[in-house]
Amino acid sequence: MNVLIVLAHPETRSFNAALMKTAVARLESAGHAVAVSDLYAEGFDPVERASHYVDIDDGVFKLLDAQRDHAKRQTLPEEVARELDRLEWADLVIFQFPLWWHAQPAILKGWFDRVMVYGGRYSSRMRYDNGYFKGKRALLSVTAGSPRQAFQPFGRAGDMAAWLWPIHASLYYVGFEVLAPQVSYGVQGGGIEYQKQEALEAHLADCKRHWVERLGHLESEDPIPFAGWQDWDEAGVLRETAPLRWRLG
Ligand SMILES: Cc1cc2nc3c(=O)[nH]c(=O)nc-3n(C[C@H](O)[C@H](O)[C@H](O)COP(=O)(O)OP(=O)(O)OC[C@H]3O[C@@H](n4cnc5c(N)ncnc54)[C@H](O)[C@@H]3O)c2cc1C
Q: Could you give the CA distance from residue 206 to residue 214 in angstroms, rounded to a whole number?
């Protein structure tokens, strides 16, 4: 399969970059083709603004209109078009990033703002299980500083499922099947120590090993289940007939 890795980390010698390189080597050794979007290294501009677009009709910047019109005329900004070409090529997209303030780094949030183009890649009719990217898969590979046990609802580090939900929902919104996230917890360095150096090094080696093992069987994994169009009424409310797992929340 064709795998695109979108890396959002500013340092080429970071643990995130190491996980990206580990994935490239593992996937290529299994015969897959791999491409990398290194957002910082490529200077991706995550801030959406009028100056990215030519010919804003009446001088008022309306982002949804600008994205729709430029997608139609094939005049989208060059770096957006490049990312869309990469997505078109990919069967699986892996997002590799550190958890910053309980979310993805801003550069990756901006990537969604700019690359998931209204009209071109989603519309009121083309979303969720009718989404543009239907048939493709996506996976978040996330590192977090806090240890695993601190991540739980109302635990010190909070609920990882809640922190990742907005990204999972956005991927599903544009049609991706979303695989369970790969979370490397307790990825520490510098002054914040939860464990001694030797134990930390062993722990980080374990994180890499688990990632390598998982990369070997991604193709046979089932995606996270989401409710779909058949589960909602015209107002978007869950139907009484929807499976119990959705109605229990
Ligand atoms: C702005 C900000 C907000 C944050 N918010 C949160 C938050 O909300 N929740 C939370 O839990 N954490 C948070 N953190 C912590 C953050 O998630 C971690 O710092 C990050 O996940 C670590 O990943 P990294 O790639 O930056 O690691 P690095 O800092 O690059 O490295 C981490 C450790 O890995 C080692 N290492 C680096 N490369 C390798 C390699 N190739 N092989 C083996 N070991 C290696 C380093 O020596 C170091 O010990 C935040 C950090 C920042 C800067």
A: 12
Tokens (6 digits) for 57: 């009709």
For the segment 149-169, what is each residue's pLDDT rounded down to a tens digit?
999 999 999 999 999 999 999
What pLDDT was estimated at residue 120? 87
- SS3 annotation, 121-153: CECCCCCHHHCCCCCCEEEEEEECCCCHHHECC
Query: What architecture (CATH level 2) is domain 2-247?
Result: 3-Layer(aba) Sandwich (3.40)
C-alpha 116/C-alpha 167 separation (Å) is: 12
Which of 12, 159, 187 gets mutated to test ligand 1 (max ligand atoms within 8 A of its CB)? 187
Give the confidence band of 119 by pLDDT, cuts at 50, 70, 90: very high
For ligand 1, say whether the CB of 204 is within 6 Å of any of its atoms.
Answer: yes
Q: How far is CA 94 from CA 66, 103, 145, 244, in A?
A: 28, 16, 20, 31
Q: What is the rounded CA–CA span in Å between residue 120 and residue 80?
A: 12
- H or E element at residue 184: strand 182-184
Q: Specify the ligand 1 atom closest to the Cα of 143.
A: 21
Domain boundaries, the chain: 2-247
Per the CB < 8 A criterion, the answer to whether 104 and 110 are in contact is no
Which residue's alpha carbon is nearest to atom 53 within ligand 1? 100
Nearest CA to ligand 1 atom 15: 145
**Do residues 55 and 31 make contact, with C-beta atoms less than 8 angstroms apart?**
no
185 CA: nearest ligand 1 atom: 11
pLDDT at 192: 54
